[in-house]
Amino acid sequence: MSANGGRICDSEDKISTMSSESIMDFWNGSEKSETKERKGLKVERLSSGRKITSVIPKQKMAAILKPEKRLQLTVNLHNKESKQRIFNPANVENFSGRYRFSYEDIPVSSSEDMGTVGVHYDVKPFDAFSDIYLGFGGYGAMAGDRGGFFTGGATLGVHSFLDVPNMADDYAFDVGFFAGGGGGADAFPGGGLMLRSHLMLEKEFDLVTLRYGFSRTDFPNTTNSNDSDTHVSIGLSIPERNFSSKIFKDAGVTLKEHQMSRRIVPVMMWYSPDSDAKKRSGGALTTEISLLGFQQHQYLNDNLYRTFEAYGAGGGGTDGFAKVLGGLGVNYPVFNWVNADAKLSIGMAGGGDIDTGGGLIIQPMLGFEIPLFSQWSL
Predict the structure, then answer these.
(1) What is the pTM of this model?
(2) What percent of the chain is modeled with pLDDT above 90?
(3) Is 220 exposed, middle or buried (0-12, 13-18, 19+ CB in 10 A)?
(4) Which residues contact 372 (CB under 8 A, 6 or more apart)?
(5) Which of helix, strand or coil describes residue 225?
(6) Given this model, what pLDDT does residue 61 score?
(7) What is the CATH number for 203?
(8) Residue 1 belongs to a domain
């Protein structure tokens, strides 16, 4: 009630009808409500002393009281079509590469041809000119009667896939030029310079690429009158990375999909000539021959590997004799402390006045490997 008997509000009517307990409950509840309301009330005091209260909507209050959430950037790297890539330290080169092999008959005279095998490793090192490759390798006699003829050098070439309407996209052309030196077996006596150009058509399969085309050989400083010739050349190449594999190239795969480990094996070898072994100059070959060389093994799985081998004469009066081979091998554990190793290699050999005929050599080997400690074995 006011001083003049007027009512300020109707709360007095309610209080008069309540019991003392109800009044206490009401009072306590009012305090709690007031406490709760203060959390959700915006109170303004006017100059007249009156209070104006307004209720803040719950949604706004929740927005104000909601703790600050930090912005997080999530990048989803999942790709259903992506291929699993296994990177091995032995295969971390940035260049795409391939092994390239060829065979051709080079005329030595009007009545004699020298069957010649080429072995090269090619890389594409230029990002701006992705079709240009550099090759390193050489050629050697494998058929005829010039075993011991070897040349070594480098190739500069262009390899590109054909883009012809209504033609499969696994065809490519390869044009290149080789310059090197060597000789032997009195095939092209003189300065030893060999120049070779080629134009090849390639057909790619899953694991190998077949090659067919033409090549021209020139021996500009030889005394042999048959110093140049154009002839058919056949061959194959094995892509090690995306050199000539269009499947890998389109998928953006720059390294091999499967893991491959390698090992280098220094080798000492002795030949004990048979009774019918002969020298190219005539006479019997009776002196024991020692060879020094190396083998490179590249594993295709846990046990199967491919091998590349090169040897040169180290004694026995046969300086100039050499052999280069490639093949497959198997290394299998027999016990915890020993592995059985067997391989079959094929290649070319000659020089050093040793009569090897056309130069073809087949070399089976069987032995044991004893692991010594980490990454070393005997």
Answers:
(1) 0.64
(2) 37
(3) exposed
(4) 378
(5) coil
(6) 42
(7) 2.40.160.20
(8) no
